[in-house]
Specification:
Layout: E1 9-12, H1 27-30, E2 33-36, H2 38-57, H3 64-71, H4 75-102, H5 105-125, H6 136-155, H7 157-165, H8 171-196, H9 203-224, H10 236-240, H11 246-254, H12 257-285, H13 291-319, H14 322-343, H15 350-364, H16 367-379, H17 384-408, E3 411-412, E4 426-427, H18 429-449, H19 455-465
Antiparallel strand pairs: 1-2, 3-4
Helix pairs in contact: 2-5, 2-6, 2-7, 2-8, 2-9, 3-4, 4-6, 4-17, 5-6, 5-9, 7-8, 8-13, 8-16, 12-13, 12-16, 12-17, 12-18, 13-15, 13-16, 14-15, 14-16, 14-18, 16-17, 17-18
Length: 484
């Protein structure tokens, strides 16, 4: 592990063939940017932390029935163990965006790692297996709340880290890796929770399994992250851009029509995926699908999502076609959501359900890192944490509304011979159709109404070459390809 000093920097150079004849006076300085190997360690810590926090969030959803029995509460109460993340994140997000853009990456990540660890430990030590202990749910909810406090400190960070530590031809890839560690945590929760907590008595063991990595990651973050940014910038925008002050940045975003369309439509997409992850087991169990199968579907959803995100991240890093990639993938995601709303209500269709979950994840999850980069491109020079953070807030607000709405639309079934849900048997037919309708509506709005320039790419080209965008072309058409 290398230090942050001048030791072993990787140097980006641009071929002299690519240099314009009348360069900007600052060109000589700007054409040589250093990138440091330590950026991969910072990225690794963020990935581990993001993964751990997602595991804490979704600990109980794949084993909702066992959790309800152990904590002596209803399934609706168990859903609130996931919903508390959205409720807490909404007011906290504004402070987090200010913290990231003002106090820096290091302080934000270290604070997030300590809150994450404290929440995991509280859940374990506060819920002993004693039958006489009657406040288990309250203690677990408190632990979940600390995890929820950590979430915005962690999940807002990928775009900021990519902008500060990575060159322009690696930003989308770095953002993808950091962002996809969150669904990886969801994947692990979908696998680990049903595997360990097959009965309600094994819930304490499950909580211990999630607490141990949280402690290790906290140590790595506290000891290993020594600075918020590298000694020298990796790109022209990282060097020359001074983010707008927080309040001024908010005002600029509220006047940016393209950003507002992205805020609303992509926020709805986040809400749909939150509903899917939280309610999947409850939706499938009504028609005879076991917790293990629901966990498998959740795993396929994530695995194919990570694969799709990796491929799309590499593609947009090379082509800079953020808008086209996002619109196409959102359209396929809406089709997958419609298909799931129909097939999930049919018994004995394991192959079809598994295939649609894979399709849903492949196109849906891959949008997230690209859309976050797009939020920065359409809102530059507003700080990366502010532009990406408000979209996350939009997703959290809509997630709470969607989950409450979908639960309110369920109806209790008098009998369901195939059910593996235990005592609570609910019909999800209407909620699923409503979710598909909302997903389709906001996808259509995004495809029709979202148009923007790539402001950050334009600024980088302007800083390096003193040129402006040519009609009908993007800066990526003229910028040189740098090799590290």
């Amino acid at each position: 592990m290398e230090g942050d000093g001048e030791a072993s920097p990787e140097v980006q150079t641009v071929s002299s063939e690519d240099v314009p004849r009348t360069p900007n006076p600052e060109l000589k300085k700007l054409l040589f940017f250093k990138v440091y190997k330590r950026r991969w360690f910072v990225l690794l810590v963020l990935c581990l932390l993001n993964c751990s926090n997602a595991m804490l969030w979704l600990t109980f959803a794949p084993v909702a029935n066992q959790s309800a029995q152990y904590l002596k509460v209803s399934l609706e109460d168990i859903n609130w163990l996931s919903l508390v993340y959205m409720v807490v994140a909404i007011p906290l997000s504004f402070g987090t965006t200010w913290m990231l853009d003002t106090l820096g990456l290091r302080i934000t990540l270290i604070l997030g790692s300590w809150l994450n660890m404290f929440g995991a430990l509280m859940r374990f030590f506060g819920t002993p297996p004693s039958e006489g202990f009657q406040i288990r749910f309250v203690v677990v909810m408190l632990g979940q709340t600390f995890g929820a406090l950590a979430q915005p400190l962690i999940i807002f960070t990928p775009t900021k880290l990519a902008a500060l530590w990575f060159p322009d031809h690696q930003r989308a890839t770095a953002n993808t890796i950091a962002s996809m560690s969150n669904p990886l945590g969801i994947l692990l929760a979908n696998i680990i929770s049903p595997m360990i907590a097959q009965t309600s008595a094994e819930i304490p063991t499950l909580l211990l399994v999630y607490a141990v990595p949280a402690c290790i990651i906290c140590f790595l973050a506290t000891v290993g992250i020594r600075s918020s940014a590298p000694p020298t910038p990796p790109s022209a925008s990282a060097e020359s851009s001074g983010s707008e002050p927080f309040v001024q940045g908010i005002k600029l975003l509220l006047k940016n029509k393209a950003y507002l369309v992205l805020l609303l439509c992509f926020g709805s997409g986040i809400a749909v995926f939150t509903c899917f992850s939280t309610l999947l087991e409850q939706i499938l169990c009504v028609h005879g699908y076991t917790n293990d199968f629901a966990g498998l579907c959740g795993a396929l959803f994530i695995v194919f999502g990570v694969v799709g995100a990796g491929a799309l991240g590499l593609y947009v890093d090379k082509t800079k076609k953020f808008i086209e990639a996002t619109k196409i993938n959102m359209s396929f995601t809406a089709l997958a959501c419609i298909a799931f709303s129909v097939v999930s209500l049919m018994p004995e269709q394991k192959a079809a359900v598994a295939a649609i979950c894979s399709f849903f994840g492949f196109f849906g999850f891959s949008i997230y890192p690209v859309a976050m980069e797009l939020s920065v491109e359409c809102s530059y020079p507003v700080g990366e944490a502010t532009s990406a953070g408000l979209i996350f807030v939009s997703g959290q607000v809509q997630s709470v509304l969607y989950i409450i709405l979908l639960q309110a639309l369920t109806t209790r079934l008098s009998e369901s011979p195939l059910s593996t849900c235990g005592d609570a048997v609910l019909s999800w037919r209407v909620p699923m159709l409503v979710m598909a309708g909302l997903c389709s509506l906001f996808t259509c709005c995004f495809v029709m109404f979202f148009h923007t320039r790539y402001r950050r790419l334009e600024a980088e080209e302007q800083a390096t070459y003193g040129t402006k965008q040519i009609n009908g072309s993007t800066p990526s058409d003229h910028a040189p390809s740098a090799e590290t």
